[in-house]
Write a structure and sequence with these properties.
Layout (H helix, E strand, L loop, with lengths): L1 E14 L2 E6 L2 E7 L6 H13 L3 E2 L5 E3 L7 E6 L21 H16 L4 E3 L6 E16 L4
Parallel strand pairs: 3-6, 6-7
Antiparallel strand pairs: 1-2, 1-3, 1-8, 4-5
Amino acid sequence: MRAILQRVKSSWVLVNGTEVGRIGIGVNVLLGVGKTDDENDARKLADKILNLRIFEDEEGKFQYSLLDVKGSALIIPQFTLYANTKKGRRPSFEEAESPERAEELYNYFVEIMSMRVPVSTGKFGAMMEVYILNWGPVTIFLDSKEL
C-alpha cells in the first residue's frame, strides 16, 4: 500500500458537489492499493501513520503523533499512486489492485484507523474534489513494502 500523508488544519471531500467527509486538525491520507498488498500491509501502514511524529511541540520539533494530538484522518482512495510512467506519456496502472480487492483492503485500512482516531472518507470509485489545508506544509510518502 502506498500513501501520501499530509498534515492538515482541515480537509474535506465532495462527491457530485456534496460533502461526504470532513476533518479538522489531523492527516489527509491519499491511499493506493497495489496487487501484492494484503491485510498485513494495511496494518503496518495504519500503525505507521497513527504513530508517526509529524506534529510540532512548543520548540517546533516533530514530537507528537496523530494519537498524541487527538487528531482525525480523512482517507481518500487513490489508485493513481500506482501509476507507472516509464513508457510513453500515458500512465499505466498495471500495478494497482483490481477495484474489488482494492476496495476491500481500503475498507480494512479505514476500519483499523477508525479504532484509534476519528475517520472520514471519500467514496471509493467516485470522482472527488479533495480540499486540503496543508499545515506546514508537511507531506510524506509511505510505502508499506518499505516499513
